[in-house]
TrEMBL record, chain A:
Listed InterPro entries: RsdA_SigD-bd
UniProt-recorded name of the protein: Anti-sigma-D factor RsdA to sigma factor binding region
Phylogenetic placement of the source organism: Bacteria, Bacillati, Actinomycetota, Actinomycetes, Streptosporangiales
Domain of life assignment: Bacteria
Domain Anti-sigma-D factor RsdA sigma factor binding region, chain residue ranges per copy: 23-55
From TrEMBL, chain B:
Residues annotated as domain RNA polymerase sigma factor 70 region 4 type: 98-147
Taxonomic source organism: Microbispora rosea
Lineage top rank: taxon: Bacteria
One Gene Ontology molecular-function label: DNA binding
CDD domains for the chain: Sigma70_r4
Family named by the database record: Belongs to the sigma-70 factor family. ECF subfamily.
Keyword Transcription in record: yes
Sorted UniProt keywords: DNA-binding, Sigma factor, Transcription, Transcription regulation
Record-level GO BP terms: DNA-templated transcription initiation
Protein name: RNA polymerase sigma-70 factor, ECF subfamily
Pfam families: Sigma70_r2, Sigma70_r4_2
Domain named RNA polymerase sigma-70 region: residues: 3-64
Length: 71, 157
C-alpha cells in the first residue's frame, strides 16, 4: 500500500512565511505610494508601467469633464 | 475616482479622453437615476458606484464605436506640460500597461486599477470587491507579480 505525501506550500517554494508576508507588505507600500501619486523609483517593470498609466490618466485635467449632455 | 477608473480602462481615442470621460458622465447619470432604487445592504456605497462603472465600461468596450472626436482649439499660450517626446513615451507606456492589464484575470485587473489609478486604500478596495483587506493585499501582490511576469515575457520576445 502506498501513501501520497501532501505537498504543502512550504515545500513548493524557497520563501518562508515571514518572507512572503514581507513581500506582500512591500507591494502594499509601493501601491500605496502610486495611489498617492508619489514618485516610486526602482527597476520594477510592473511598477514603472502602472506609474506611466497613472501619469497618463492624470495628464488631462479631470475638471475638463463636462456636465452638460453632448449634442 | 470614477473618471480615473474609466480613463484607465478605456484609454485615449485620437489622443484624447473624450470617450472615457463621456462614459464617466454616463456612470454619474446612471448612479443618480438608480439612487431611488438603492437599498443599503450593508456594503459601501462605492461598491454600488463601481459596479455601475464596471458595466458601463464593458458596454463601451463592446460597442467600440469610435466616432469622430472634435479637436479642441489650439492653445493660445505657452504649454507648461511635458514635451512631445516625453508625451509620446508616456502614452506608449500607458497603452502597454493597459494591454498587459487586459490580459490579467478580471478581479486582478479591477483590483489594480481601483487600488492604484482610482487611489483607493486596501480597505476601500476590499469593500468594493467584497474582499477583506488582507485578501486584497495578497491578491494585489499576486496581480503585480503576474503583471511583472507578462512585462518580462514581452521584453524577451
Amino acid at each position: 500500500m502506498t501513501t501520497k505525501r501532501r505537498r504543502t506550500a512550504r515545500h513548493l517554494g524557497s520563501y518562508g512565511d515571514a518572507d512572503v508576508e514581507g513581500e506582500v507588505l512591500r507591494t502594499d507600500a509601493l501601491l500605496d505610494a502610486l495611489a498617492r501619486r508619489e514618485p516610486v523609483g526602482g527597476a520594477d517593470a510592473a511598477i514603472r508601467l502602472l506609474g506611466a498609466l497613472v501619469a497618463d490618466v492624470d495628464s488631462q485635467r479631470l475638471s475638463s469633464v463636462s456636465i452638460t449632455p453632448s449634442t | 475616482m470614477v473618471v480615473r477608473y474609466c480613463r484607465a480602462r478605456l484609454g485615449r481615442v485620437s489622443g484624447q479622453y473624450h470617450i472615457a470621460d463621456d462614459v464617466a458622465q454616463e456612470v454619474c447619470i446612471a448612479v443618480l437615476s438608480a439612487l431611488p432604487r438603492y437599498r443599503d445592504m450593508g456594503r459601501p456605497f462605492a461598491s454600488f458606484v463601481f459596479g455601475i462603472a464596471s458595466h458601463k465600461v464593458a458596454d463601451a468596450l463592446r460597442s467600440s464605436v469610435r466616432s469622430a472626436v472634435p479637436t479642441q482649439d489650439l492653445p493660445d499660450g505657452p504649454d507648461e506640460g511635458p514635451g512631445p517626446e516625453e508625451t509620446v513615451v508616456r502614452y506608449i507606456e500607458a497603452q502597454h500597461a493597459r494591454d498587459l492589464l487586459a490580459r490579467l484575470p478580471d478581479t486582478q485587473r479591477e483590483l489594480l486599477i481601483l487600488r492604484v489609478v482610482s487611489g483607493l486604500s486596501a480597505e476601500e478596495t476590499g469593500n468594493v470587491l467584497g474582499m477583506s483587506p488582507g485578501a486584497v493585499r495578497v491578491a494585489q501582490h499576486r496581480a503585480l507579480a503576474r503583471l511583472r511576469q507578462l512585462a518580462e515575457l514581452e521584453s524577451i520576445a
